[in-house]
Request: fold
Amino acid sequence: DAVLELRDLQVSFGAGKHEVTVVHDVSLRVGRGEIVGVVGESGSGKTLTAMAATDLLPSGARRAASAWAFDGTDLLGADRNGRAAALGGKLGVVFQDPMSSLNPARRVGSQLSDTSRFWGKRTRAQAHDDAVDRLRRVRIAAPERRVDDYPHEFSGGMRQRAMIAMGLMATPQLIVADEPTTALDVTVQADVMTLLRELNEEQGTAVLLVSHNIALVAEICHRVVVMYAGRIVEELPAADLATGARHPYTRALLSAVPNPDPDVRMEPALVGEVADPGNLPPGCAFHPRCPECFAACRDRTPALTSTDDGRQLACHLFPGSPAT
Ligand code: SF4
Reply:
């Protein structure tokens, strides 16, 4: 019973000998009421995976998949209008920078009302009331007054909460939040994360959280998908991350989380550059940076394989990871 199902996704740019594939064979599933985190460094393909799932890929990107469904509707065989009808009103998207997502020349409430009027067929007055209600729901103080503010009159945290409110204007089954707290202060980050968790707990809204911050993802997600160089390298329950992560890349990301204890000396956990999608090394793309690399890693790409305890893992260190 998935709200989002994507199988064997490939995303590529360019054509012919200039074609570069940046997302390889990614299968992603978000169950109803589930919070799934997709984590990895910049260039890991996490944002393009989320954009492909929500039909928001930039022009020039090509998507191929063996299955793609949202809320029970097949999107693979649908045209652009069919996909918009299936996703509109049921999908909320929160981007990293709310200032560039909101139109600075229009009042916040008016922008929120668009969704209600278009997808909910509400009148102008009803849509205005909806906007006040959703701003209240995301804890904007005095929403009756603030609904008429322009985006520049909101703080960064308020703008991000307004973006979440926009996603709530219809009846979202899924909120996709792409680095929703990166541009915010630490205290405001916690506020936005709490809000997403409350929406999930109180209304059962599923969340796909894309982030480079594995600590943040571990805190609010049920399940975590780790990506490197356009591939999923590990998938596991968030509760097992701290002690049960097996992939060397996942463990390196966890080791890179700063320790607040000043007496703990931190060693660099990840050395070297993220793999270039247009020039991936042979074998496992992580091998030039992997402290546990051995001969087979340089020749063969480990396939993502289900483990006995229901996880997914792509690493030659673990039996059952056949090469591709
Ligand atoms: Fe490291 Fe080899 Fe596993 Fe890749 S396959 S993560 S190089 S041990």
About this structure: The CA atoms of residues 20 and 62 lie 10 Å apart. Residues 248, 284, 286-287, 290, 292-293, 297, 302, 315-317 surround iron/sulfur cluster (CB under 6 Å). The chain is about 30% helix and 20% strand. The two ends are 30 Å apart (CA to CA).
